[in-house]
Amino acid sequence: MAKWFCGNGFALAVNAAPFSFSAPTAIAASAIAALPAAIGVTQPLFDDPARQALYQATKGILRKVDKLALTALRLAASRKESTVGESTLLDATTEALL
Question: pLDDT digit string (tens) for 49-69?
Fold first, then answer.
């Protein structure tokens, strides 16, 4: 780990480990799985086909995953659904990824 010291006593630390481009699915999946746990949700918010469609639509790009997931959650909430299904996710795709 490399460290750079900035003014006013702040330090910036950067992990210099090489990034693996072979595992974007695992990175996106872990990011999706960590969000509900971080806010205390105990049941899954996305069913399995919706999770797979989320990755396919965003190609695992975390910025797009976040944007589409939030749009799908809002759409599911407006429809009073407890879980985001594949059809809801596909409806949200046209709105989020324009």
Answer: 999 999 899 888 888 988 999
